[in-house]
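User: Continuing from earlier, I have the next pair ready.

Assistant: Great, send them over.

User: Here they are, in order.

Assistant: Folding the first of the pair now:
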Amino acid sequence: MKDFLGNYSALLESQISAMPFGKQPPSLYEPIRYVMRLGGKRIRPMLTLLSYAMFRDDVRPIVPYAVAVEVFHNFTLMHDDIMDRAPLRRGKPTVHEKWNLSTAILSGDVMLVKVYELFSSLDPSTFRTAVEAFNACATKVCEGQQWDMHFEGTDRVTEAAYLRMIQYKTAELLGFSLELGAILAGADEASRNRLREFGLLIGTGFQLRDDLLDAYGDPGRFGKQTGGDILANKKTFLLIKALERAGSAERKELTYWLNVKKFDKKKKVKAVIAIYDKLKIPQLTSRKADRYFAKAFALLDHFPNTPARENLRTFTQLLMDRQQ
């Protein structure tokens, strides 16, 4: 781990550990502490710190606002897990499994309130700019989630529609995380926009990689149920391209697995992955993701060649190379 990442991670974890969130009733606040303690790579708040550092030296004053991004992210995960009926998150039981559905909804709602509470200490002009950008992002995230659920009941989803969905659901928050760092640093609008676009591009690439991990990852390392997207008939990039490339035999089998109501879960996942392998869908998906990363790195060349810029590049590269 690079030194700057260790330092930033320590700042974030210290801030998260110190946050009280609330006390009474315990059943409302303990799920929040549970989710926030599950860890993860803290990608989004790390991007906020890295972006800010491109314009100012000391990131410590903005750590609470970077943590606000992580609180929002975990709020979306808590509600997303409910909608997906996901049993695991980062290798541990999801909140609705460990507690119950109503508690997960209410605890998530409180987390969203806490985001605005954290932003409220900003000076008025910065607060307005930051919250306007956050509101636009949060709306897109909800729109993306709705498109994702809509696609589950749709027979045909185009590649363009899918890419729009993952940009809204996943990439927008990475874009906002980087834009927030620039806003808090007082950066010019062009820099803000470039960093936001950088986040949109890498976010799209990461989601394509996550689609692959959902089908092919080790659940012990990935922290999620392997094949969950396949079992839920999610119209991922993998499935969309498989349907495009399928011959009559592969299409017939895919159609069967997409429509059958009672099935053995392991058998379905194994059968669909075999079709993906035959059609070389993993290789196609990896190449698509790599193109987004290449466009993102080209945007960094618009910024001065400083250690802070290279730190952002290094962090992104580490995420690209991750195996879980």
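And the other member of the pair:
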Amino acid sequence: MNFSTRLEWESVPNRLTQLLRDKRRVGAPILDLTESNPTRAGLEYPPGIIESFGGNEILRYDPEPRGSSLARHAVAQYYSARGLSADPAQILLTASTSEAYAYLFKLLCNPGDEVLAPRPSYPLFEFLARMESVSIRQYPLVYQGGWGIDLGALEQMVNDRTRAIVVVNPNNPTGSFLKRSEMEVLERLCAARGLALISDEVFSDYAFAPDAERVSMVAAVEDCLAFSLSGLSKVAGLPQMKLGWIVAGGPDPVRRQALEGLEWIADTYLSVSTPVQCAAAGLLRLGEEVASQIRARTAQNLASARTCLEGSAGGILAVEGGWSSVIRVPVTHSEEEWALALVDLDNVLLQPGFFYDFEGEAYLVASLLTNPADFDEGLRRLRRRL
């Protein structure tokens, strides 16, 4: 039986995964500094979250391709509370941001078309794009005391098959936000070449400090078709609730046409459940209590990491927001060798930079969502190893 070439991925466990399995098989107490699942991070969830699902309305099925008006108004209110404008008519609900990407690739691309996405970044785009028979080309982020887009390199990568540019704002794992100066170039480029701009903004609520030059919402642009993506997974620490959304922006005629196309796609799948749409307003409101804990946790761990590694052979790269921290380690060993040694000799799990397609060596990535006691001990062991 021949299956689709979309599924032709390497399935052999890498050395780090195999070592980790072996260690856990014999009961080794691994300090996992990669934990990014908020439901396993020891956070306190308000009991009202469960109560949000108590109404009889969850028993009635009334499918709306764009999502229920009640839930879309709740998302619009989420933005309004942050000083941003999102018309419910410009919002389409999805089961997740991953599904939102799939919808947008279906909308914008024919098989063989290309989408530009950042490098380094979370290793997801290539999988999602391949499922839609679309190719990903990676444009570089560069570090010069802070991360930024190599705009010259990006512009040179645009060709006749390019259909969209993806930005992650803030990026995962670099934690860098899109700046207004970058946004001006991207908007002008997309308008001139007929490209769409897709912005993944799931971590936008988790900035470590204010910055007037930061772009809050890409869908607010006027000169090119643009989409802002987010969802409950990060903004409320509720990945199990499976509710994401797309906010469409840009010139009115093309934006309307895009929303009509997205509605056709969504109507084909109708993937968003009624209960989570009915509960959306309550989940977003109560999720702020969870988000506040996450902000405190990530800020505490970042400060601890900086203090712990100060004066060592390793260092924390500048980070503006999000749930991750990038640690530069000496190139006396490869990233893989660093990660393997930490698991094997110190029972500490960190992710090597090549998991995120870092251009060079040597970087390790830690999740700032980790339990603080485990995080602090893991960093102390890393410092000794350094």
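Worth noting for the second one:
The chain has a mean pLDDT of 97. The CA atoms of residues 116 and 165 lie 5 Å apart.
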